[in-house]
């Protein structure tokens, strides 16, 4: 059995700047548009075992996050460190407990 070490692939400093920093803008080009798929990025695996739902998941995630951001204002409590700490054990990495403030937006 061969398994891809996604953590090492997605934390390789040869391909990623500031590997421990959460930075969604790293996927954008100079014009703020979604750039080319980085060489060291395989969230849906690869080869014959690639996730069949990738073509559905990507646009669906876009709609989910757009809807959340449209309906809610998400902020940090005052004095909160903006750095996302990671926790978990073994092969699973999860965000450490993190506090946010979610307020419903007034939609008219």
UniProtKB/TrEMBL annotation:
The keyword Nucleus does not apply. Pfam families: p450 (PF00067). The keyword Metal-binding applies. Heme binds at residue 51. SUPFAM superfamilies: Cytochrome P450 (SSF48264). One of its GO terms (biological process) is hormone biosynthetic process. PROSITE patterns: CYTOCHROME_P450. One of its GO terms (molecular function) is iron ion binding. Keywords: Heme, Iron, Metal-binding, Monooxygenase, Oxidoreductase. Its cofactor is heme. Belongs to the cytochrome P450 family. This is Uncharacterized protein.
């Amino acid at each position: 059995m061969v398994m891809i070490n996604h953590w090492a692939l997605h934390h390789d400093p040869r391909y990623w700047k500031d590997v421990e920093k959460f930075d969604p803008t790293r996927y954008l080009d100079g014009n703020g548009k979604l750039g080319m798929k980085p060489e060291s990025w395989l969230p849906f695996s690869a080869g014959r075992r690639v996730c069949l739902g990738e073509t559905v998941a990507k646009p669906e995630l876009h709609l989910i996050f757009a809807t959340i951001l449209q309906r809610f204002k998400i902020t940090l409590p005052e004095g909160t460190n903006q750095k996302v700490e990671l926790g978990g054990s073994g092969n699973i990495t999860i965000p450490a407990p993190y506090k946010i403030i979610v307020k419903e937006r007034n939609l008219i």
